[in-house]
Specification:
Structural class: alpha+beta
Shape: globular
Largest sheet: 5 strands, antiparallel
Helix content: 25-40%
Number of strands: 30
Strand order of the largest sheet: 1-7-6-3-2
Length: 719
């Protein structure tokens, strides 16, 4: 910058607000009209230490980056669409790229940051580590305009959702078309982050704490021609929240959980060999590409063997030249770590360069940590060419039906992660579910594995407690140590111990979309995390409400779903499709059936399930009304269902509770006649009341519809 920048722009750089707390910089600041200013300021490069110059170096690096060809193109496009004509002319008529970048930094900092964000987007939006991509509908008119009521509504919506106080703002920039990249609209969202503090020390050694609310920043990029919405934000939850509110509020569309551009690094390719085919790219010549390190596990995951070489050696030839080594690699249970070296020459340059990066079996790559953006992009282009970087796709009709039982099982347990063993026990292909975006690779089961790429390999960290004595007669005190051991031992098939993250929102959305076609009047509504209302199905001239429930094998969940369904009794007897296979034909005066039993997975059309649903509803609706006689039926080892005609049914879980209800049922069917509380609890829990035995909310449900007290201390079935 000192070599090439104009004095007036250098003066503006030194006077930037970002440096106003750097008191040591004061002697070097100069007036823009001072011809000797740059020379005197340059002295700081000789006098000051590197650490002190760090802030200036960081900001100068940003300016130089925007002064490069790609940054210049973005800055030019944004200036023409964002700035007033006179202001844009002032920027664009600066003498060179560096001057334009420096002028924007000093005079239009918001525009400068927008150019940075646009560059960041083009480099990273495909890699999911920084961005997530969401699906919206294409639009001819594009998204909302700057300062529009829709953007104000978006800010108000996010303020309510995030609940971090005021201070939200949003600015819009139009990103011009660039080669294969279509024109897009960029929205920079600024939001308050939670308060935090830092410790500060001044030049005199005085220490103090500063409390402040740091600004959070998110970027939303909407491409009208494709409907894709890219979001960069601090964490996954925030990205989903911002995307959902932008699509729902600003675009007035329905939010979709379908993952877009999701990717996974599949290094199992190298279990079959280490050859890498050289691609033919227009902008770069790939002279050679070789695996220079491979780590495998033999017999189990804890046993790790590593072989390293250089780009000038063929690792396959080295393996073949050593007796016994080829058989060891052939029988490896897993490929754990791969390092690839690529020798290349960029178009228009004579120098040959080397790209070196690593891949692990935990779906990670060192490419994203490379400083050179060209090499980051080149590495991913090569991985796609070698079919190591797998990109997902939406399921077709036949695939959708084929994976439906697996999706129901995954959604039913409501877990964030599932293991390979769990999937294999149910005959589920994790490869297909990963390709369709329902699962994402997430390492290995067991202790938290620490991937150490510096020759150590994965290790497991655990906490170990003990008692330590200061001397023989001293009093012992508890100590806690972090103990690091070898990677976990996994006998047999290692695929059983793989862990996959569940994209729960996409699973639920796909299930809802598939079932929507079955209904005569679909109206999907989320009633709770475990219960969805799907709409109405016409049965024998009447409308039957249809629900989808999960987790009914867990008592608390089943009780909560039961409560929610009873609150909707005005809709009449319904049909509850459960994702799992919890016992019982009824739930809260509704017919209960496992959905998987009603689906013919050999058919491509899920509509065929409608007649089966009508059949199961007709078969069990009398029971859902309470049957024709008071009855207590066992539906599991520790659960029974009470049927009362006209009242419906209710689940009773626990031996003591079942015994109390059985006595009431027997008394009703023999008499009917009331029973005293003392007789009901005799030999069961004589020191407790009935309310204590049944607990809330079960007791409240029983006394509301199924039991009544004709006199003090007496109870009977309410018919």
């Amino acid at each position: 910058m000192f070599d090439d920048a104009e004095p007036t722009l250098l003066a503006a750089f030194f006077g930037s607000k970002i440096f106003e707390r750097l008191n040591w910089l004061e002697p070097y600041r100069f007036d823009r009209d001072d011809p000797d200013g740059p020379a005197s300021a340059r002295e700081m490069l000789r006098i000051e230490k590197k650490d002190r110059l760090g802030p200036l170096e960081s900001e100068a690096a940003r300016i130089v980056n925007i002064a490069r060809d790609q940054g210049e193109y973005v800055l030019d496009g944004l200036a023409r669409t964002k700035l007033e004509p006179d202001r844009a002319k002032e920027l664009l008529t600066q003498r060179d790229k560096l001057a334009r970048s420096l002028w924007a930094f000093a005079n239009e900092h918001g525009l400068f940051e927008a150019a940075e964000n646009s560059l960041h987007l083009r480099l990273y939006r495909r890699y999911d580590k920084h961005y997530q991509t969401f699906m919206a509908e294409p639009s001819i008119d594009g998204g909302p305009g700057a300062g529009s009521a829709l953007l104000e509504a978006l800010l108000a919506d996010l303020n309510t959702r995030l609940d971090r106080g005021d201070g939200y703002s949003i600015d819009k920039f139009n990103i011009p078309e660039d080669g294969e990249e279509p024109a897009a609209e960029m929205y920079l969202l600024y939001h308050p982050d939670p308060p935090t503090s830092v410790r500060e020390i001044d030049d005199d050694g005085n220490r103090s704490s500063i409390y402040f609310r740091p600004p959070g920043e998110a970027m939303i990029v909407y491409t009208p021609s494709t409907g894709r919405v890219h979001v960069r934000a601090g964490n996954r939850k925030l990205r989903h929240t911002i995307a959902e509110r932008f699509i729902e509020t600003a675009l007035d569309q329905t939010y979709s959980n379908q993952p877009v551009d999701f990717q996974a690094y599949d290094i199992s390719h190298f279990l079959k060999g280490f050859d890498l085919e050289l691609p033919d790219f227009d902008d770069v010549l790939i002279e050679s590409a070789r695996v220079i390190r491979a780590d495998i596990s033999i017999r189990n995951l804890a046993n790790r063997l590593s072989l390293s070489t250089t780009i000038d050696q063929d690792i396959a030839e080295i393996i073949d030249s050593q007796p016994g080594l080829p058989r060891i690699f052939e029988r490896a249970v897993a490929i754990r770590f791969v390092e690839i070296a690529v020798r290349y020459r960029r178009a228009g340059r004579e120098a040959t360069q080397t790209l070196d990066f690593t891949l692990t079996d935990r779906n990670t790559s060192s490419l994203l940590s490379l400083d050179d953006p060209f090499e980051r992009v080149l590495g991913h282009r090569l991985l796609r060419h070698w079919n190591i970087l797998r990109e997902g796709r939406a399921p077709g009709d036949e695939e959708s039906m084929a994976v439906m039982p697996a999706l129901l099982a995954i959604w039913d347990i409501g877990a964030e992660k599932v293991s390979g063993a769990w999937l294999q026990a149910r005959g589920v292909d994790p490869g297909l579910l990963t390709e369709l975006g329902f699962l994402a690779p997430h390492g290995w089961e067991g202790d938290d594995l620490i991937d150490d790429e510096d020759e150590v390999g994965p290790v497991a960290a655990g906490v170990k407690t003990g008692v330590q004595r200061d001397d023989e007669d001293g009093e012992g005190h508890k100590v806690v140590n972090l103990e690091v051991t070898e990677g976990q031992v996994t006998p047999g098939n290692p695929e059983l111990y793989r862990v996959y993250r569940v994209r729960d929102g996409w699973v639920a959305q796909h299930l809802k979309a598939g079932l929507e076609h079955v209904l005569d009047a679909p109206a999907i509504e989320k009633l709770s995390d475990h219960l969805l209302y799907l709409g109405m199905l016409s049965v024998d001239g009447g409308d039957v409400p249809i629900y989808l429930a999960r987790g009914l094998d867990r008592e608390k969940v089943r009780s909560a779903v039961d409560t929610e369904l009873r609150a909707r009794h005005n809709l009449g007897i319904g049909l509850v499709l459960q994702a799992g296979s919890a016992p019982g034909p009824c739930l809260a005066a509704n017919v209960l059936t496992p959905l998987v039993d009603q689906i013919d997975t050999q058919q491509a059309e899920i509509e065929l399930v409608a007649d089966k649903l009508r059949s199961v509803f007709r078969r069990h609706r009398i029971l859902a009304r309470g049957g024709q006689a008071v009855e207590l039926t066992r539906v599991g080892e520790n659960m029974a269902t009470l049927f009362v005609p006209g009242k419906g049914s209710i689940d009773i879980k626990g031996e003591n509770r079942i015994e109390v209800i059985q006595r009431l049922v027997d008394a009703h069917n023999a008499g009917p006649m009331p029973m005293a509380t003392a007789d009901l609890i005799s030999g069961i829990a004589e020191d407790q009341s009935l309310a204590n035995i049944f607990k809330q909310p079960l007791w409240k449900k029983l006394t509301a519809d199924f039991l009544r007290s004709p006199g003090k201390g007496q109870w009977e079935i309410a018919v």
